[in-house]
Structure formats: structure tokens, C-alpha cells
């Protein structure tokens, strides 16, 4: 095998590696987009379940989490009121 054959073999190998890298990068991007979509779907499911809770139609398996959201909402309201009080005093 001559020097030129070795060089051409290296070039072909590099082309294949670049193509593989590009394909892997594309696949990772696609997986990232799919994971974002999945997260969006989970959030929508959560909002829908919480809306059912607000209508009195509970889902027993997530009722405790819905009550936790109400507790967090109350804490947010308290802190927002405290911020308002501080701003008015300051």
C-alpha cells in the first residue's frame, strides 16, 4: 500500500467519522426536542389534573400533591403581601 493509498484511506475514515458525528449530533438534538415535548405533556397533564381538583373531581393518587400546591400558593401569597408591605414602608 502506497503513501497515497494510506492518505486516501485516512480521508475516507475521517469522512465517515464526521458523518457519524453529524448523525449523532442530529439524533441528540432530536432526543432533546422529544424530551422537551414530553415535559410539556407532563405539565399539561398536571394542569389538567389540578383543574379537576379545583372542580372537586379528584384523582386520589395525586390528591396529596394537589393539596401541596394549595399550600405553596398560600405561601406565595403571604410572601407577596410581605413584599408589598416592605415596599410601602421603604
Structure report:
By secondary structure, this protein is mostly helical. The protein has a domain of 54 residues. Helix content is 88%, strand content 0%. The chain has two helices and no strands. The longest helix is centred in the first third of the chain and has 52 residues. The radius of gyration is 28 Å and the shape is elongated. It starts with a helix and ends with a helix. The mean pLDDT is 90.
Number of helix segments?
A: 2
Uncertain runs: none
Provide the β-strand percentage band.
under 5%
Gyration radius, rounded: 28 Å
**SSE string, helices as H and strands as E:** HH
User: Largest beta sheet, briefly?
Assistant: none
> Share of helix among residues?
over 70%
Shape: elongated
Q: How confident is the prediction overall: mean pLDDT? A: 90
**Structural class assignment:** mainly alpha
The total strand number stands at 0
Please report the distance between the alpha carbons of the first and last residues: 83 Å
Annotate the secondary structure layout.
Layout: H1 3-54, H2 63-89
Provide keyphrases for this structure:
90 residues; 2 helices; single chain; mainly alpha; elongated
What's the gist of this structure?
Helices cover 88% and strands 0% of the residues. The protein has two helices and no strands. The radius of gyration is 28 Å and the shape is elongated.
Amino acid at each position: 500500500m502506497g503513501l497515497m493509498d494510506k492518505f486516501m484511506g485516512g480521508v475516507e475514515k475521517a469522512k465517515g467519522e464526521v458523518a457519524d458525528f453529524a448523525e449523532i449530533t442530529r439524533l441528540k438534538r432530536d432526543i432533546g426536542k422529544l424530551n422537551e415535548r414530553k415535559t410539556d405533556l407532563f405539565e399539561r397533564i398536571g394542569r389538567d389534573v389540578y383543574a379537576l381538583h379545583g372542580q372537586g373531581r379528584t384523582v386520589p393518587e395525586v390528591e396529596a400533591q394537589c393539596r401541596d400546591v394549595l399550600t405553596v400558593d398560600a405561601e406565595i401569597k403571604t410572601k407577596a403581601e410581605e413584599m408589598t408591605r416592605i415596599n410601602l414602608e421603604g
